[in-house]
Amino acid sequence: MRDAFGQFGKLRLGLLDTSLTTFSNLALNPGTLVNSGVSFFGGALSVGAAKAAVNIGPSVTIPGLSLPYSLWVDGWSNFVGVTDFIGSTNFYGLNSKFGTTIKNALSLKNGVDVKNALNVGNAPTTFHGILNVSGRIECVWLESELAKAKASPPKGFDMHHPTKKGWRLTHICLEGPEAAVYYRGVLDGKNYIDLPEYWKGLVDAESITVHLTPIGVYQELYYEITDWGTKIKVLNNSSSAIKCSYIVYGERKDVDKIVVEYEGKIEDYPGRDQRSIVGYHYDYRPGVNA
């Protein structure tokens, strides 16, 4: 509508509502549209009643003019409150989020994802590509598994060389088809080897073997296992004094027997895996000898 000077005036639909602006702005500024009821813009909406105070339908087809969008905004738009997006949402520029983002559905990312803050995940995460990490990875489960590997026999180890500065010394534990332990020492003037008390719960008594080496003279040594595998009685045919070194071996009974031979790859091992991690440096301590 135009006034007496040919200028555009105001258009008011329904009762005058000044709750959203001052009366002076409403009265003086040209181009003000006030509608106290429901507004419809664009083509036909889906069947049903109005869904909001302002309803914007599909663009109207105009011959010779392509209007693919229902709403176009140049500039800065503010949404205060809850905003629902039903369907596809495309962002072609910077998307900044300063609050909490909750995703309860599939999230697909085909570009670079840069995060400079804490990322907390409470569900399984699956990667089908290469995961490159340039920093430190902390994992409570992995640390626990490494602790088990360090505590369970057999294993190799890598340590600082005891006599050559700047060198390292690598040893591999005795390799065999069992989880074995040993106890060694020297007998001089006595004929009993007292095994450690904990061998009762650790070692299968029927697996115990003893290696005896006479010291000084030949003694015709032999042994007997007594007291349910807690003592080794050492004797000789001449009933002379005993002086020898000894090594006692036994197989652990608190762990499963290892499967020595199996078909397939390493992940096909059929037993409970008690093997250590090859190449792990057991004396590595961050900040001390890194």
How would you characterize this protein structure?
- Among the domains are: 1-95, no CATH class; 180-251.
- 8% of the residues lie in helices and 21% in strands.
- It is built from 3 helices and 12 strands.
- It has helices at 23-28, 140-151, 199-202, and strands spanning 11-13, 33-35, 39-41, 54-56, 156-160, 168-172, 180-188, 192-194, 209-214, 221-226, 231-236, 243-251.
- It has a 3-stranded antiparallel beta sheet, with no helix packed on it. The protein has a 3-stranded antiparallel beta sheet with strand order 8-11-10, with no helix packed on it.
- A hairpin with a 7-residue loop joins strand 5 (156-160) and strand 6.
- Residues 277-285 have low confidence and may be disordered.
Labels describing this entry:
3-stranded antiparallel beta sheet; single chain; 290 residues; mainly beta; 21% strand; 8% helix
